Fold each of these.
Amino acid sequence: MAAPRVLRPRATQVLRALDTTVEIETPEHVLFSCSLAGPARRALAYLIDLFVRAAILIAIGIALSLASLAQPEISGWKLGALLLLMFALEWGYFVACESFMNGRSVGKRALGLRVVTQGGLPVSFGASVLRNLLRAADFLPTGYAVGLLTMTLDPRFRRLGDWAADTMVIIEERPRLREPIRLHPPPTAAELDQLPTRLDLPGPVLEALELFLRRAPELQTLREDELASMLATIYGQRLNLRYQNASRFLGLLYVRAVGGKPSVR
């Protein structure tokens, strides 16, 4: 199976530079867009991870100190154990998190970020190791100066580690509960009686109807009628029904298809 192809931004998208989104095409030629994580959000996620690592180090340091008080003979190992822990946290923390948390660390998860490949696929263990080994180069000369400069100049906000591992960091959309669609005024028994008792609409048609009904209040009347007529004409002829308002007719079709009941008068 061929790898997904990342589409290059079109010239018409220049004015949307601040939108920080990228379009990705899957092998099945399905397009989806991702929001890219910028330097500020990624820096905040790194600070959260820094506090997490410091908390782990402090907790284990306290435990070793208490253990050395109870058994003085192990006090000589305390410094070596702390140094080994610091090394493990510095080089293994992000790799372990991204491998076991599907491209996220504690900080990334808190801010809704995830590391993925340029094709939108989950990051592999090898890619995670490579991108995190190059943190040393991104840190130069201090304070991630090289990494921040690279992210600022790159249209997908990639640092050197992302360039080498062919990865990027995206913002995940948090799931939101949508309010159910309600017609105003509510459908009456007389309106619904004109429609078939059982109306099975294909999934894509239901999705198109729902999208239209959610956007209809934001559209101008002429534009709403124009869009509604495209689908209302087809189903009006198919069901041998007449209607006066195309938008209302589509709303009634949707209500009937999802099992809606008439309003009680």
Amino acid sequence: MKAIEAQLSQQEDTQISLTDPDARSMQGTGKATGTVGYNVQCAVETEHHLIVAHEVTNAVNDRSQLLSMAKQAKAALGAETMEAFADRGYYNSEEVLACEGTGILPCVPKTQTSNNPNRGLFSGDDFIYDAQPDRYICPAGEHLTKGAVRSDRRDNIDQYRNLTACLTCALKPRCTPDNKVKRVKRWQHEGVLDKMQARLDRMPDAMIIRRQTVEHTFGTLKFWMGATHFLTKTLKNVRTEMSLQVLAYNMKRMIKMFGVKPLIAAITA
């Protein structure tokens, strides 16, 4: 145990797999699931459900995968602009910001980290940002203005508050039950996230389209693979195995779309 502890201290991700050195314990819903394996990424186009890009990593979650997969999909499609639908596991403000100016329009639902709504309290969504005067409007209709000092933890986070109206507000028990003044934090590039949310608001079926597209593809691949999924070990071999699965999937999709002979003719052309 002491020897493994010393070895573990040298690992960047604090994990060691004794069965497969590249495998990692994956995360789900913010915590480790105990499933040791690999993180498979697939980008599927919505018209024909073909896999246009895929990747196998040992990243334990999807939070850093949005830009990479979207860029690969955009290049494969030869598109100038592209909407990228992903589930909330991909929500990462830095990744969304990195998509700016690339022609990629990410559509990722916001991660709900606050338990306030379940406690009958106001959440951040109840505070409306007014861009022109740079202030927030609280549920009581009062204005929260930007403080002179930014957050003490991150120098790109502003704090908005109302030092006078907050303490005597009738809605204070639903906002800040203690004696503190309500503070609303705003990231320096929050406008990028606001634009993405506005896109999602205009597309109420966006996540339904996502589920009908990529989840169907993953379900088919897992059905073919069986209970064991991957039969090989190490990242290099698993990537090769996944590439063969994707090739088979796309070929069967194209045979379904226009038949064997036209596909052979297209391959030999």
Amino acid sequence: MEPVITSIHARDFAQKTIDLLRKKEPEPPEPPEPPLPKQEVQGPDRTIGITDYKKWETFQDEDEEATKKQAEEYAKTMCSQDHRKEIELFERPTREKLDAASTFKQQGNDSFKQGNFSLAALFYRKGILQLDYTFPDTKQEEEEFKQTELSLHLNMCIAKYHLEEYDEALTHSAQALRIHPNHPKALFRKAQVMFARDLYDEAETILESLDESSSQLKEVIQLKKKLAKKRDNYKDKQKVIYKAMFKE
């Protein structure tokens, strides 16, 4: 099928042929058109020069829409949980929550004395939960709050220590030290955990930092003796290993 030449194309072709026959000198290039003046266009169709800001705004809208959708999904997840107990606990009077925390602490102490460390830890955790939703109003309540919180974390630490849950024990010793930095009992609890994990250097460093007038002095001395014995046993084992290595 032959190509169809419209009148417009034929006219262009004829003009080019005539120009070639006349050997017309090439015309100088036309000067570039001056740039269009910048116009501030309000609304969604914002195009300045060759930059289409509408595309950028569309991209931003899509990003914001995705973020909004993620937030809505997270809100749905949170709303699907039942927070009535937390709200009820939060709304209870401060005095009532402080008394409940002290009661749970005493119940935990009773269970601990009976050797039921799991039950003791459960009571201590309930006491800590009471304080998580407690915000003291007076200086007296603030002091009572701090003392109860300190005791609960210290007791939880030793309960977890006996359950050989050393990571949690260290967490609660750290919480106790946050409340009362350099607290002797909190440091000693931490040293106990380090010793149980065979971290003798760390345990020794902590024990050496304790004041000899500390109320934990008797326990500190006992732990130091255990630490020295462990080191001696370790040295003896090393000697046996070296002898076996170089034995003919």
Amino acid sequence: METIYALATARGKAGVAVIRLSGPRSFSAIKNLAGSLPEPRVAGLRSLRDDTGQLLDEALVLTFVEGHSFTGEQSAELHLHGSQATVAAVLRALEKQEDLRLAEPGEFTRRALENGQLDLAQVEGLADLIEAETEAQRKQALRVLTGALGDKAAIWRSRLVRAAALLEATIDFADEDVPVDVSPEVLELLAEVGLSLEEEARGVAVSERIRDGFEVAIVGPPNAGKSTLLNALAGREAAITSEYAGTTRDVIEVRMDLNGLPVTVLDTAGLRETEDYVEGIGIARAMERAKLADMRVFLQGDEGSYLELRPEADDIVVRGKGDLRGNDGFRVSGKTGLGVSELIARITKILDVRVATAATATRERHRIAIERAMKALESARNEVMNGPDRAELAAEEIRTAIRALDSLIGLVDVENILDEIFASFCLGK
């Protein structure tokens, strides 16, 4: 195994910069620079010098013995002063040493996976944690990183292994009288796991939304105050506003953090019948995006038409340009801020209810694996119901379900997706 090194912190001027090393020559490489090493996992201040004896920096040095590091290998860290010149000088000094090379993007994490320090779901959780922009994203990613999905998969697997073992016992003693009918216990185990998998599968869509962001579309007739409301929510001039109907011709997207939730708010073209070709394209796009959004805010204006769009259960209906309307009902004004805080509260309350149903599984890959397992378990249940003569087929279906769950955490069938996953990691992670 080669020894790799890379800058682990962002490039540019900073108070501190961290360079990481991992591999069998980590300690000797650091010793060449620092002269001596502190005790493992105890930071020590050292003077770093290049091969000519020139002082490079005063740095904190940390070492980790094999089995007790992020990668599972012998590893070390240099905590330097964060100037670009200092970092460049230390990297040059490492480059000159034999059997060291610059790490590829994601290589530290890939080694952690290969050495059993992380499972594949935890690697994905780490990638999501690095990309997290909101509190909800942070919490979800951290839950996956700390092994929550792997823990669930282990429970499912143990129950299915038990079910398969019971069936295989009947196969082994097929020519003898087996005093106990195992089918009730097997069916109970399959039902328990199947119910848990079904619940997990239902929550994946919400988990994906937490990671990628919810979409909230502002819809309504022309000149109802949609663009002004978007600007008020965004806190900047994201959309052009005017007194003329039909100003917005395309869907304008603004990504924001609403009370910890990642939300993309869509400002859409005013909905009305029109003979203007370009406006008609904008209205068609508005209708399409609004239908696909997670929820819609219907702004009521002087015109009442939403064409074929109708508010659904979680949608919000509110009077637009509330500063110009009467005092009846829920009103909002992007111009004066009237009702904007209440609107945000209503949106987040609705989305919070959905977030509560989120699964531990967070990706499409997870959903596909879970659904494969569910399908195999349904087949296994049918085989068990058909009698003891079908026990061998039932056991094979259970093993198929176990393999599907093993793919969740990277025990099988993962080589084809590793490159895609690690391509998203930065250098030094």
